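Student:
Attend to each token:
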Amino acid sequence: MTGMLHDMTALVLLASLAVVLTGGFVKGAVGFALPMIMISGVGSFMSAEVAVAALILPTVATNAVQSFRGGLRDAWDSLRRFWLFNLVLFAMILGSAQLVTRMPERLLFILLGGSIVLFSVLQLRGWSPRIRAGFGRVTEIGVALVAGFFGGMTGVWGPPTILYLNALDLPKAEHVRVQGVVYLTGSVLLVAAHLNSGVLNAQTLPYSAAMTVPALIGQIIGLRVHARMDQVLFRRLTLVVLVIAGANLLRRGWIA
């Protein structure tokens, strides 16, 4: 079954491959941004619903590679170390998702995007946030609550998570692995949610599956770049991508 691929023009298919390859590369290099790039890129020549469907399987596949690249034991260690963060995050996502119809989405995108851009730019200009001794658990729970709140309301919880990991100053390999573990759980939930919603269906599923290949190829190339980056360059590149992500959220808020 080829679904919508059967009627897709060569130009649209090539454009899709280029967008996803780019997203996979960025994902491999810094650990995130594939969904953002696919939503913006694929969504420029396909409907938003199709763009969402397209990113689902590539997101699961690349998150699995990111989580288990260092082996099952390392992934388990990351999950165990951040078990509280993940528990609070996903409990908050489930809770705040019930409020979607009660709060203006565009305001949430503007608040989240503005905060991300502000904190990222400040860090690019030399500010280095650190978690005070004795406040580790409180900070972890607080960030998870904020990330989960926006995650349930807008579907975006990655940027607050990344800012938190930056504040912990994790080595880049662990930083990326922890991201993968957090995102993998969420992306699996996303598959179930959109099979139920109908976004992922007999027409869009083959398209999403086909986009998994360029996503993984791009990720492999990006991982090679990642391996050559030192900690300082990785941190700065992460912040630059966060600024772009935050600006994209502001755009979504303004044009909603």
Summary: Residues 49 and 199 are 7 Å apart (CA to CA). The two ends are 35 Å apart (CA to CA). The mean pLDDT is 87. The longest helix spans residues 172-197.
